[in-house]
Amino acid sequence: MRTEFPTTSPAAATPQGLPGDRADALGSIPAPGRGQVRTLPRCHGSADALLLAALAERESARALRAADPADAEAATPTAHGRALAIITAKPGDAVRLAQEMRWFAPLLRVLLLPDWETLPYDAFSPHQDLVSERLSTLYALQQHDCDVVLAPVATALQRLAPARYLASHTFFFHKGQQLDEARLRRQLAFAGYEHVKQVVRPGEYAVRGGLIDLFPTGSNLPYRIDLFGDEIDSIRTFDPDTQRSLYPIDRVRLLPGREFALDEAARTAFRGRWRERFEGDPSASTIYRDVGNGIAPAGIEYWLPLFHEHTATLFDYLPDDAIVVSHGDVDAAARRFGQEAAERYRFLSHDRSRPLLKPEELFLDSATLFAQAKEFGRWSIAAPGEADGDGAGSAARDGSAAHEAGEARERGAPFALPPADVAIERRAPDPLERLRAWLAEPGTRKLVVAESPGRRETLEQLFAENGLRLPAVDDWKRFADSELREAITVGPIFDGFAVPGARISVATETELFAGAPRRRRRGLREAQTDVDSIIRDLSELKAGDPVVHAQHGIGRYEGLVTMELDEGPTEFLHLRYAKDATLYVPVAQLHVISRYSGTAPEDAPLHELGSGQWEKARRRAASKARDAAA
After folding, report:
1. Please, where are the H alpha helices in 143-251?
2. SS3 string of 98-152?
3. Dihedral of alpha carbons 74, 80, 82, 87, sign
4. pTM of the predicted structure, to 2 decimals
5. Interatomic CA distance for residues 158 and 154, integer angstroms
6. pLDDT of the residue at 508
7. Cβ distance 225 to 232 under 8 Å?
8. Average pLDDT of the chain?
9. 489: confidence class by pLDDT, cuts 50, 70, 90
10. What is the C-alpha end-to-end distance of the chain, expressed in Å?
11. Residues in contact with 227: Cβ distance below 8 Å, sequence separation at least 6, in sequence order
12. Quick count: other Cβ atoms within 10 Å of Cβ 513?
């Protein structure tokens, strides 16, 4: 039985990323002034997200107290304070930090400026969901409605649409307002929206009599506008899959559908700049012809400067008092990206029907990136797992690497260390021996973090079978605010850590199942794994449990067998299928096995090996998913 514990709320101006008075660990980390660069202490695992979240809360509260000291008690991280712009050397770190920082500090407004997930000069466009998130983030920055923005270095190097484009192409309307349908259609076309029969993704709209379905860029759900004559009678959100209305709202914000306009003025400007930039007959290019006809061809984003008189960069959207954070070796990553863009330009620029803009017209180089960053205060932090000195390139651009190295030595100990060895050893008489020893260590509070509610139940069952029970808490904040010595929760934390200054240690499934293969984080356009079905370790399986093999479908786990192979004794999972067929799977390939989540385990329908049943079932499921999406 799970027990939930009540908590108390700390003072609003106290950083909530670190528990209560333990936030004093931040006191030795000074904020950088304009043009200064300071090195943050090293972190292990996901502690970099904890440190950055706590610092973001601190800087937000400090800015508010400085603006109105008499109202310091009312300062909250959600009001306008000093923002952090975190540029990561690895795209995956930007996504990870965004998820983890939101978990550590749920009041922080943490936004991601995602990568396009295309290679330079690719002949296809980024997914509309990515474009929607990018425009929403840029608008929030413009409105000072953001505490933390995270961007991979490839995004930070991109030349963007100017701020005035967003300002002039953003509209609002509300319930009770007079609305001219023909004028709205023109506004939508002006903003780059696509007219469709059924709205399913951002940047689309549909008109059916007195109903207008609209999926604004930057919105999580589409809206259904019901007109009574020329007046907006109601506005409701709806589910794009079922098309059923959900709940009413009073006001809609309409961001542009793309990072460029496709109205007549924009198309005329594009054609004029194309003729100035490229020699030869422009009508020979399908790109030129499509834009002239109001069509956005695939990959048009790599001609974005031709739509705007001037382009902007990420730094143009940042508040003047923002702090720029370099996460990892940003300089090396920027140089690699520049080399890749130059190589792709040389390889692809010979196609006369698709003339390309030069890399410097689309991207900043590393030197320009750091020259613009020097206008702000800066922190630099090494990415987890980097060797000492790997992040120095980001500081060396400012000629301050030696100063930062000295500053790091003066600061002494890192912010976070690796957690103790808590790996579950299924062959040992007590599989949880290391975990118990960790929990018994005095002076430090312990938190076990599962990846999902289903994974937490699996861990709780495993612990209970071995005589261990941990109280459950909802999230990090509830644990931090409580007096619990040990607990288990659910969170997006990828790696554990120990923070000596806060006397807290965190263990994740990465540490509990140290020998299991790690699943990488996926991009927005990739299918998501059902986390609850993941099997991390054989200790989670009992003889008779139904399982799913990625290629062969549903079978029943019958235990382990050892076979003598050329390389010596090797362990295999013994799986039984229909008609008593047997399949042996090497333990090293445990990642191809997942938990069965269908009917009752004893009634699981076993597939017949070699019959094609599993492949047919997968095709039917994929077809249903496509039908639902359509």
Report:
1. 153-156, 163-168, 181-190
2. HHHHHHHCCCCCEEECCCCCCCCCCCCCCCHHHHHHHHHHHHHHHCCCCCEEEEE
3. positive
4. 0.76
5. 7
6. 94
7. yes
8. 82
9. very high
10. 42
11. 179, 181, 210, 211, 212, 233
12. 23
**Three-state SS string across 293-358, please?**
CCCCCCCHHHHHHHHCCCCECHHHHCCCCCEEEEECCHHHHHHHHHHHHHHHHHHHCCCCCCCCCC
Would you give the DSSP letter of residue 428?
S
Mean pLDDT, residues 526-530: 41
- Confidence class for position 498, pLDDT limits 50, 70, 90: very high
Amino acid at 395: A
209: helix, strand or coil: coil
- The DSSP code for 444 is -
Interval 259-291: pLDDT, tens: 898 888 889 999 999 999 998 889 889 999 998
The CA–CA distances, whole Å, from 440 to 240, 417, 486 equal 50, 18, 10
- Going by C-beta distance under 8 Å and a sequence separation of 6 or more, which residues neighbour residue 116? 126, 130, 155, 158, 301
At which residue do the structure tokens 């995956």 appear?
A: 92
Structure tokens at 164: 């005035």
Give the mean pLDDT of 440-450: 93
Kindly tell me if the per-residue pLDDT of 324 is higher than 90.
yes
Inter-residue contact 93 to 101 (CB < 8 Å): no
User: Each residue of 544-599: pLDDT tens digit?
Assistant: 888 888 888 888 998 888 887 766 778 888 899 988 888 888 877 777 788 787 76
The answer to whether 347 and 122 have CB atoms below 8 angstroms apart is no
Phi and psi of 583, rounded to 5°?
-130, 130
Q: Which stretch of DSSP H or E encloses residue 245?
A: strand 245-249
> Of 499, 396, 371, whose CA–CA distance to 447 is shortest?
499
Length of the chain (residues): 630
Enclosing H/E stretch for 415:
none
* Phi, psi (rounded to 5 degrees) for 562: -115, 130
Measured distance CA(456)–CA(434) in Å, rounded: 19
- AA letter at 336: R
Helices and strands (H, E) in the chain, number of each type: 19, 23
The 8-class DSSP code of residue 472 comes to B
* 3-state secondary structure (DSSP) of residue 396: helix
Residue 107: both structure tokens together: 């009041």
Cα 94 to Cα 521: distance, rounded to the nearest angstrom: 11
